[in-house]
Design goal:
- With about 475 residues, this protein is of the alpha+beta class.
- It folds into 2 domains: about 190 residues, Bifunctional carbon monoxide dehydrogenase/acetyl-coa synthase(codh/acs), Chain M, domain 3; about 240 residues, Ribonuclease HI, Chain A (3-Layer(aba) Sandwich), CATH 3.40.970.20.
- It has 10 helices and 18 strands.
- The protein has a 5-stranded mixed sheet, sandwiched between helices. Strands 5-2-8-7 form a 4-stranded mixed sheet. Strands 17-15-16-18 form a 4-stranded mixed sheet.
- A hairpin with a 6-residue loop joins β7 and β8.
- The protein is globular, with a radius of gyration of 24 Å.
- The chain binds iron/sulfur cluster (SF4) and zinc ion.
- Zinc ion binds next to loops.
Length: about 475
């Protein structure tokens, strides 16, 4: 793409070390977290599934390279955009501080998601090259006429919440040529961060780390981050979480002592279970770090991909966030995301980082790559090196199979290892089932029907966890229903 010269009138820079929240045209605070901006209320959006050029990156720089409070918009700003339009965006946040080193970049970058969502009329979803931001008409009309206001709010929030950030400058790129150039650099940084943890295993460390940043969205969700399992959002590795815990021990990332290993293949540890029980307020009792079944790891909503069980072939399929079409079970990513998210455990559904598929322990309890039967071509190409050589041609994509029936034929034609399981299944089906008169406990049934469709009401009740909630009502009536009527 030819280099597009920036129109100087579109390029603005400013330095505002002292920010006064009362001068902002929009409000800022935790109460705006979770605010949704729907199409009719949309002024403009950046990134998302339809826009490939997008990223957000935090870099730690030497003190002299950061101009504290500087905000710059490189390319067309909000007033030049069409109402309802979708545009490319790159966000580069450069920070410095005497206690900061590059290990902390990934963790600071994840805060961009939270802090942006504190801004009234701004919705932020995902991270890295999946970022998606919406700006509301209301905030634009009230005076938020530039992305620079978002930058100023981020500076305010970073400095207020994290005193280790001594200097900070923010640059928004909306010029596609500039984004393309910076995006390549950003991807190199993401890869270098992720590769660092690849040489280490769970057995070699005494402690894992936890992340509870997403509890504002899913109160019972706790990410357990190990050298072999990155946080579901794909932005916090074991090294990132360790660095975060060192600089902010009371923050969202803290050490999790492993305790006794109850199952080394599934990845069940007493120390992990204890932390998950405590931090989920008892909603989750146990997790398997490396399985879709038997108490899978929970997810909030920002996972990069989903591994899901395909009962017709007794295999595991994978779909990532950018795949828009229906998968081999007829459901889209967004439909299945509903069954995978919210901090609940739904056997047969696992939200995960794309990096987890590079892990040597990737769903090892379920058969690892030998159990994978289907994945979109795009993600298969991206993970080419991670898929064992012998398996690469045996995993179908949307180009090979669109339905479970087609998938079955494909797997047969390739002699996929999962076929060995079919014989065992058929044998088991033919064996007469002894009449015991007892019901099969629901947890032993595979999750063919996603449990996320129903409110869990085991034992005649359900639990509602309200965190930081403010409820106002003119009248509340709770009535006991008379079952005899
Ligand atoms: Fe933390 Fe997990 Fe949320 Fe990522 S998905 S921010 S690792 S809780
Ligand atoms: Zn999340």
């Amino acid at each position: 793409m030819p280099e597009k010269k920036c129109d100087p009138s579109e390029l603005r820079a400013e330095t505002q070390p002292a920010l006064d929240q009362s001068k902002f045209p929009m409000d800022i605070g935790e109460m705006y977290e979770g605010e949704r901006i729907r199409k009719p209320d949309l002024y403009a959006e950046f990134g998302g599934v339809d826009i490939p050029e997008k990223f957000e990156l935090v870099l730690v720089r030497p003190m002299e390279e950061v101009q504290d409070g500087r905000v710059e918009v490189v390319g067309p700003d909000l007033p030049k955009l069409q109402i309802g339009g979708a545009y490319p965006l790159g966000i580069l946040i450069e920070v410095s501080g005497s206690k900061l080193d590059r290990d902390i970049e990934g963790v600071l970058e994840r805060r961009v998601h939270y802090f942006t969502n504190y801004i009234e009329g701004v919705m932020h979803v995902n991270q890295r090259t999946d970022v998606w931001i919406r700006i509301s008409k209301k905030s634009f009309e009230r005076g938020m006429k530039s992305l620079a206001w978002v930058g100023r709010a981020l500076i305010l929030l970073f400095k207020r919440s994290l005193p280790i950030v001594e200097k900070i400058q923010v640059t928004f790129f909306t010029d596609p040529a500039k984004i393309e150039e910076r995006l390549r650099e950003a991807v190199k940084v993401y890869n270098a961060r992720d590769e660092r943890a690849r040489g280490l295993t769970e057995e070699e460390v005494d402690a894992f780390y936890s992340c509870v940043l997403c509890q504002s969205f899913a109160p019972s969700h706790v990410c357990i981050i190990t050298p072999n399992r990155m946080g579901g959002c794909g932005s916090i590795s074991w090294f990132d979480a360790r660095a975060s815990s060192n600089v902010d021990p009371k923050g969202p990332n803290f050490p999790v002592m492993k305790g006794d290993c109850l199952d080394s293949v599934k990845g069940i540890y007493t120390g992990v279970n204890k932390v998950v029980q405590d931090r989920s307020l008892g909603a989750v009792q146990q997790i398997s770090l490396h399985s879709l079944f038997d108490h899978p790891h929970t997810s909030c909503g920002c996972f990069e991909s989903i591994a899901f069980y395909v009962p017709e072939v007794d295999g595991v399929a994978i779909v990532h966030r950018d795949f828009k079409g229906p998968t081999v079970n007829g459901l889209t990513f967004s439909t299945m995301a509903g069954h995978t998210s919210g901090g609940t455990q739904n056997e047969g559904f696992l939200g995960m980082a794309i990096e987890y598929m590079r892990s040597t322990k990737f769903i090892q309890a379920d058969g690892g790559w030998k159990r994978v039967v289907w994945m979109p071509q795009q993600i298969k190409d991206r993970l080419k090196e991670a898929i064992p050589t012998g398996m690469r041609d045996l995993i179908a994509t949307e180009n090979d199979a669109k339905t479970a029936g087609e998938l079955k034929e494909f797997l047969k034609s390739k002699n996929h290892p999962v076929i060995e399981r079919w014989a065992e299944l058929e044998k088991a089906e033919k064996e007469p089932v002894p009449e015991t008169g007892r019901e099969v406990p629901p947890e032993t049934l595979p999750a063919l029907i996603p449990a996320g469709l129903e409110i869990p009401a085991v034992g005649g009740g359900f639990k509602i966890i309200l965190k930081n909630a403010k409820i106002t009502a003119e009248r509340v009536i709770i009535k006991r229903e008379d079952s005899r009527k």
